[in-house]
Amino acid sequence: MNDQSFEEEEIQIPVNVDFGEGPEVRTQPVCFGVPLPQGTRLSAGRLRDGNGGCASVQLEPLSRWPDKSVQWMLVDAILPVGYSPGPSTLELGDAETHFSNEPTPSPKQAILVHESENQIAIETGTALFQIDRKTLRPLEQVSLNGIEILGASGMRLVVTDSSGEKFEAECDGWRVETAGSIRATITGSASFPQLKSLRATIRLNFYAGSGLLLLDVAVHNPNRAQHPGGLWDLGDSGSLLFQDLSIEVEFAKGASKNEVRCKVEPGFPASAIQDQSWNLYQDSSGGENWNCVNHVNREAKVTTNFQGYRSKSGTETTTGLRAEPVFDLSTSQGRTAFGTPNFWQQFPKAISVTQDKVRIGLFPHEYGDLHELQGGERKTHTVWVDFKTGESNLDELDWIHHPAKVQPTAKWCDSTGCIPQLEIDECQRLSDFDSLLSEAVGSDKGILAQRERVDEYGWRNFGEIFADHEEAYYEGSQPLISHYNNQYDMIHGFLLQSLRTGKSSWFKLGDDLAKHVVDIDLYHTTQDKAAYNGGLFWLTDHYVHAHTATHRTYSKHNCPANGMYGGGPGAEHNFTSGLLLHYFLTGNSNSKAAVQQLANWVVAMDDGCRTVFGIVDDSFTGLATGGDTYHGPNRGGGFSINSLLDAWVLTHQDEYLLTAERLIRRCIHPHDDINKNDLLNVEARWSYTVFLSSVLKYLNLKARAGDLDRMYAYAQASVIHYAKWMLENELPYFDQIEKLEYPTEAWAVQEFRKANVLRLAAAHTEGDLRHSLLQRGKEFSDRAWQDLLRFETRTNARSLAVMMIEGMTDCRLRENAVPPAPQADASLYGDFGTPEQFVSQKQRVKSQLRQPVGIAKAVASTLNPLRWQRYWRIKNKAT
Question: How far apart are CA 308 and CA 192, in angstroms?
Answer without folding.
Answer: 32
